[in-house]
Amino acid sequence: MLNYTLRRLLMVIPTLLILVIFAFYLMRLAPGGPFTSERPLPPAVMANVLERYGMDEPLYVQLWTYIKNIICCFDFGPSFAQKDRTVNDVIAQGFPVTLTYGFWSAVFVLMLGVPLGIIAALRHNGFWDYTMTGLAIFSQIFPNFVLAPLLVLLFTLSWGLLPGGGWNGGQWQYIVMPAIALGTSYMASVARLTRGSMLEVLGSPYIRTARAKGLPERTIILRHALKPALLPTLTYMGPVFVYMITGSVFVDVFFSTGGIGQDFIDGAYSRDYSILLGLAILYAVLTFALTLAVDLLYAWIDPKVRAGLS
Amino acid sequence: MIGAVKRRLNSAAFADERAGEMVASRSFWADAGRRFLRNRMAVFSVGMLSVLILFAIVGNLFSRWSFEEIDWNVLGRIKEDGGPSLENGHWFGVDELGRDLYARVVQGTRTSLLVGFIAGPVSVLLGATLGALAGYYGGRFDRTVLGAYTIWLAIPYIIFFVVWQAFFGRSMSQMILVIILVNWTAGLLLVRGQVMMLKNREFVDAARMLGMSDFAIIFRHLAPNVLWVVVIYTSLVIPEVIMMESLVSFLGVGIQEPNTSLGALLSEGASTMTFGTLWQLGFPAAVFVLAQVSLFYIGDGLRDALDPKER
Predict the structure, then answer these.
(1) A278 contacts chain B (CB < 8 A)
(2) Residue of A nearest to B262 (CA)
(3) How confident is the model at residue B250 (pLDDT cuts 50, 70, 90)?
(4) CATH code, A90-309
(5) How far is B195 from chain A (nearest CA, A)?
(6) N or C: which end of chain A has fewer CB within 10 A?
(7) Which of B157, B128, B159 is nearest to B145 (CA)?
(8) B114-310 belongs to CATH 1.10.3720.10
């Protein structure tokens, strides 16, 4: 188990390196830069600015300095476009926001998706089952960027219940819509997956045995069926987190929550190399951490997987 | 009455007809086609999608305005005069800048469908070819491809997408290119699994005995057998690609103005809905949802028709 964890962690390093090198060269090979503008700077000023940011050196030296600074001092460099701010400042300000509604969104996905899937399986071909199928189709057709304006239209413009954007220190009213907009489609997939595996488990021989023993239905479902039925859902949470990170960029932009997604898009516009690289690394590390956590949890719960690892 | 039916059932013409039907129905694709046609929702969706495609191609003929022309008569009074109207020729109203929304929706639908129907199939073709090669050869090549696949899936595509779009211009061909690059894993695992299963079958051995090259075996003998997987997967990837394109356009790093796409129109509509110009959100959203609904049911129908487990 420990061995496996270490191996996975070691895998992260080359992957991140590839990502950084690739992104670095991709950005630098493109024409233009953070200091090119409509009104070009005088050459002397430009040279000074470039020197100030270390951009007068050859690319591989810059890349080396960048990586060295990250490893030695956890320094992701200064922002090129936002004066007087470092990448660390930007992340420190925006990341907690993204993390907060991301967390609540994950809670929403699990707390609604799993029970819905179980109920749909227990009432196979019943009302809840059809509701869920409808929800699954709905979520496929209304992705977050269609759903979010509709939510604002209903909750803010029509009923005036919730604020249509902003963050305000993370009051709950400001978290509800971002969490729902981010989570709905994954909630539907989680429900569908849980339903499928629950149906499969309920049809298996050992559940029949439990029924034959005369166990109450409640015990059968809670003690015997639930745990194995939830395993596929758990593995699916890894990819869900990856998609949610993609979705969070959209949520940050649409709801103006002040999360890192907005900085990412702004950085792309203003050619802010260091912000883009820093956030790309952050997104990647986050995905790795979350998928690894899910995999380890899976191994911890499922003895068969655990045996396969060691 | 009964006599007429009997006579018809015993006639040579009827026998020929039935026999022809039986011979024809032996082909897997003919069977699948029949199953698909029996799925009413799928057939209806094909019709709906055809209407949308027609709308994207010839919709401009019914428009009095071009998609970049500003109507100065309504600019400044968009909330009052800019709504959908038959009199001034703005069937869908005008957008925030006074441009005809109908012409823009036609243009946006064209962009989104083109991106979907070019980038989707091409990326599946790429992924499927890689998957087939990996499954067929196995060994180190397989491990490399699979390793790259796992790493790639662990990176949110948006990183790559946004960086690429922002730095290398935002034309339609760039968009298609980057979507193909991002989606190179489409269908890879499925085709790989199928090929691994099929490559030990007798017909592959027979082909090898006959001295066929690996290339010929993969593309002449294995490819027709995994085609159904590829078709199903393509039908799933196309709406996904359209969604991807729309999301990126919504974020503002999509196709360059004045060209537009459904995602960009949705984004514009969403940003102005507080001003009471809801048609700017409604029409693009309706077209987008229509496209997604029809693609969803077509994919559903194809899956039911082609999946051998269903037979």
Answers:
(1) no
(2) A146
(3) confident
(4) 1.10.3720.10
(5) 25
(6) C
(7) B128
(8) yes
